[in-house]
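thought: fold this chain, then report.
action: predict
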Amino acid sequence: MIRGILTTVVFLGALGSWAATGCLAGEGDAGTRSAQFLKLGLGGRAVGMGGAFVGLADDVTAIYWNPAGLAGVNATELSFMHLAWLQDISYEYFALVQPIRKRGVVGFSISYLHMDKLHGRDQQGEPTSDFTASDMAITLAFGRKITGGLLVGGSIKSIDERIEDRNAYGLAFDFGCLYQTPLEDLFLGAVVQNWGGDVGFVEESFRLPTIFKLGASYRHTLAGNPMNLAVDVYSPTDNKTCLHSGMEYIYKNSIAGRIGYKNGSDLADTAGLSFGLGFMTTRTQTYRIDYAFVPQGVLGNGHTFSLSIRF
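observation:
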């Protein structure tokens, strides 16, 4: 118990001091990485909580947030997501997880970002033919319980970026762990996302947007209803370190309210906030519909819709 408490205190202290640094050397590399769509959060539930999900990751979207969380999923789950993002850009997501007896849990997902046709211009600025652009990632993930409250997991992603008739391919890996502390309701998580080699496009190659994350979640009850509090620190290699925090309250296992915040946004006073709602049809949440609203200042607003089914 004492060892667990000390571990928790050290972890949270490191998390807080890491966030307090404000930014790392990677901030000067903003805009120099490929496959930026891999940074977009997935699932209306997690997005509504401000993307603070590394230490929670207890559903099908753990494939993206922290593959170690897959080991805690005890039933087959399907998820579909549609994100109406900025400037007519849309993001689609499908995910499936399946427990394999006592060996662990395997997950599979496809994410696809696409947009309306763009107007082409030549070097003199004269109009040319319209063209399209899209990004896609196919992910295979696995999570397993090691011992006690320790879960570990990993994933491999196949990345395909396209601009008209040109395309780029690459592979990326995620590694994560999730630990239930002796404090019972407190969980700690860590994950490395998008680790891998360069992605080549025409004659240029660009590095992947690798992100290091630490997270903690507190799962408890308030007035007899489940409540989740979460905080994550994101440290991307191409931008400043930022803090994500979120809260979820589930009333009578049927309606969920969520709010989240991400610091460091310069777009507007409301940018960085997120709000979400969830609706469950049964006590075991066999069907769940989630919605998240994320204001982006002058750029517009993001709307995330997702449906999850548990068998």
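thought: worth noting. The chain has three helices and 16 strands.
final: tokens above.
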